[in-house]
Amino acid sequence: MKVVKNLALAFAATLMVSGTAMAQYPERPIELIIPWSAGGGTDATGRIIATMLEEKLGQPITINNRTGGGGIVGHEAIKEANPDGYTLGIVTTELSMFKPVGSAEMTYEDYTLIGLYNADPSAIFVSADSKFQSMQELAEAIKADPAALKASGASFGGLNHLSWVSLVHLLGAPADKAFWVPTDGAVPSLQLLASGAIDVAVSQFPEAQSLVDAGEIRPLGYLGNEANPKQPDVPPITDALGLEFAIAGWRGLGGPKGMPDDVVATLTEALDEIVNSAEFAEFMDSRNYGVVWEGGSDFEEYLRKRGEAFDAAISSAGITAQ
Question: Which burial class, exposed, middle or buried, applies to 3 when counting CB atoms under 10 A from its CB (0-12, 13-18, 19+)?
């Protein structure tokens, strides 16, 4: 009787294992956390990734904009989620800066990295009626007194703030005197610029395009070393001021640490197909977003090197959390 009972239990266990192995991910809807406000570049690119992943995976994906703390709230929510593959998130440049700045202890090592899909340099914008007509004129004002210029472009210690203080530092002015107005994203900062509340905005070009097209703000230059063929009248900082500038923003898809290998493989394969598709290229090109693909371990190596570069830049600029 005991032998029969053991055989029955073993058979039941076999059925359970077989059932698990046969389960196909995903079996239910997925949540995608976006750590920035609606309407910005991370939101726009995150939503197209979600739409295309829905088609690939056959399950709906719900967008959750978890804002606050300069991206800390959303990134923390991604990190602390159940690593079952049903909560994913768009991880952004700030993940390379939280720890060096001292605003949070999170790094890329706290996440399961699925793939990098975008990288773009920031640009400098002024209002349409600004007295500054060129990067050279703005540079002279920065050298004279960086505290007299109110600049913004999202959170303190974020990419655009770091880009601004790095520019101040490269021009030989005291970077710790730079006047930065923190906001919850580039879009609110650009609205402040258009209203005349600040003097300068630092933003990626796609987020500023609508206000540029409306004639409310003007670009003065890219904080990069190469010209953008789509913006031939906007000089890179190397041409305008003779400065080398190596900092750029990035965006990728990730999840909490410890996601199952088969789930990561499914997501990486799907994202690879999306990022290298004509549809995604057309979407990104129409909004001036750069497309870069680095999957899995390549994404991890990209972030390791980027972390070292940001760490060095933040240290030289003397930025610490407030």
Answer: exposed
